[in-house]
Structures are given as structure tokens and as C-alpha cells.
Structure of Transmembrane secretion effector:
Amino acid sequence: MPTDAENPMDHPRDVAEATTASPVSPASRGYGPVFAVREFRAVFLAHLLSLLGVVVSELALTVLVYGLTGSPLLSALTFALGLLPYLVGGTLFAGVADRYPARRVLVVCDLICAGCVTVMVLPGTPVGGLLALRCVIAAVSPVFTGTRMAALTDILGEGDLYVLGRSLLRIVSQSALLAGFGLGGVLLAALSPRGAITVTAVTFLCSAALLRFGTRARPARSGGDGGGALLRESLSGARTVLADRRIRGLMLLFWLPPMFVVAPEALAAPYADEIGVGPVALGMLMCAMPVGQIAAELYVGTALTPRRRSLIVLPVAAAGLLPLVVYGFRPGMAVAVLALALAGAGSAYVIGLDQWLVAAVPEALRGRAMTLLTAGLMTLQGVGMALAGLAAEFLPVHQVVAGAGAVGALCLLPLVLEVRRTAPARPVRTEVRDGADQHMTSG
């Protein structure tokens, strides 16, 4: 594997270009300046490729496992294993994000995923091996995502460009979910499940190449104290991050709304059956929330200034789940789709929240904090889905979804007050540091 010593991006002219592209005045709007940063373009394309690879591989692997076993349980477990190992990987291996140079971490993570996917396509790989490899990919994912999130502060600075860059990656994530399953269906119509999985190995390798040759080499944030202390360093970082009252409140504000908002998605099929609609309507129910999120994020990112984005964080977070209460009246398709789109739009509060978290977390802990953030987010979404399914065993689906909206809103009220109480006395900095003087990561 190439080392981090040589890279075309290391030349002074490229450093100057990345640096001069970063500063953005508080009044600047739109995503154009983010794409003007060469390194971000490489990260963006790598993110798109790896996401499509993950989505397609999940679909193809589910079909493959079902074809080998005929077991709906094992097929469903394949999807579940995409969420459960996040907590393990994000907690036990979070120290990797700060201990090693980010570009190296990102490239190695992509290569590990490509290797796992390559072994999956071998005809002799048993079902147990397929599920174990799925777990490895899921455990690597929070380390990759957390490292990349921390790296964006080095590529884009800590101001508005970072916020808009994170917003773009979220938009890509939502869009990839919509496009990825469609692409997976097309691939499965043309190829065998193993053939479709082979395509995803190529996407991981292309992502690794983009990150290796499209981003600069930067030193690690912290050197650690030896390989044997990685677990202790990861757990210590998690304790330090969560012990801070301000950071803990911001983390929970990232985690709790998604935990409740997944209820209608988890129960979309049962609700479609409850109101007597077909597969097309079910697809609309599944797409409404991501479409609402993408539209709102684009609007907030392009039409609002950083100050206004900051002002809407707490009100939108507090009210974002309330549209789900409409489910209590067992609405028809039109009203249900509108409610889901509004609930998706409520997630736009995270654009301003991103800036608050960057300002609150010390640079030396940033990689571990972002990895922990990713692990908690995915784990609690899985818990939310499981709790919604359990509740639907005893209550009508529409009542479960409405209850998730109401209970979630009530839980958020004290959290919003806590975040407001811990707000810094001075406004959050929006100026951007010189990228050439920053430590670590790329990707």
C-alpha cells in the first residue's frame, strides 16, 4: 500500500489553493465554494462511490443469503448486522481516528471493506462467513466516517465551509439510499448476487484511490502511547467526550431525534397494509422522509446565513417530530406522505448543530468524538426500529408512529433546555484557520 509520504497534493501551489478557497464570510451562501476546494471534490466522489457500494452490497448480500438458506430470519439478520456492530467499532476502535494519519486510516478502511467483499464473492464462503464479513464492514464504518468528519475540519476549516461540506455528504447519503436500491435492483436483474457484490468491491477500491491520491498527507492529531493501549485510549476518549456537559448535550441532540423518527420507516409496510394501499404507495411512504430531508437541507444550506442556521437549531429540533403525531388520526396516503416529508425536513437543524459540536470538541479528541457520534447515531436508530417493531406487536401501527412523535418531542424539551443552558457566552467562531497550519487528516 502506498505510504503517506508522497502525494501530488503536497506541492505548495496546491496547499495555497486549498487554503485560499476556504475562508467564507458569514454572509456567503450556497455550496459552490465547497466544491472549489480540490480535496473536498475527491472526498465527495469517494463518499458517493463507497455509499453506493455499501447499499448495493447490502441488497445483494441479503438476496444471496436468502437464496442459500431460504430463511427470512437470516436474510433480515443480514440487514440488522449493518447496524449492530457500529457500537462496538465506534467505541473500541475510536482511538484509531486520532492516533494515525487520517488519509492512511481512510484508505485502509476502504481496502478492508474491499477485501471483505472480495471474500464474500468466493463460491466456497459459507453463510456464517458472509455474516461475519458483514459485521467486519459494519465495525469499520464508524471509524471511517468519524475520521472523515474530523478530516473535513482540516480540508475546509472549522467555519461555514465545514458546515456546508457536512451538509453535502448528508445529502449524498440520503440520495444514495434512494438511488442505491434502484441500482442494486438493476444489477441483480443483470447479474447474480455474487456478481453484484463484485461491483461493490470495485467501488471501494476506487474510493481508496481517490482518497490516497486526491487528498494531502497530514500528521495524526495524537500519537498515542503504543499499539497495546489503543483500546484504553478509545475508551478514555469516549469517557472524556461524554463527561463534558456541553458535548454530551450536543451528542444527544444528534442522537435522539433519529431514534424516534425511524418509527414510520420501520413500520411503513405494516402501515401500508393497515390503510389498504399497494406497493407503489409503500414506495412513496419510504421515499417521503429522505426527500423532505434533502429539500430542507438544500434550502437551509443555500438560503440561510450561518447566523440564521444557528438560530433555528433548537426550535426545529424541538418541533421536528411533531408532524408524526398526525398518524394518530390514521391518515390516508396524501397526509401521511406530507407528515413524513415535514418530519424529514425537521432534520435540517443538524446543519447549525455541526458547527456547535466542532467548536465544543478539543482538536485532539475530534476524531474519537466524531467516531463516537457516528456509532451512537446508527446504534440508536437500530434501537428505535426494534422498539417500534416491538410496540407494533401490541398496538396499532398508526398509534405507535404517533406515540413515537409525541414521546420523542417530550424527551427533546429538557435536552433543548440543557443545550441552551450550556451555550458559550460568546458567539461561535466562524473564521477559518489556514489549512496549511492544521494537523492531520484528509478524507
Q: What stands out?
A: The chain has 20 helices and no strands. Residues 29-424 form a domain with the Growth Hormone; Chain: A; fold (CATH 1.20.1250.20).
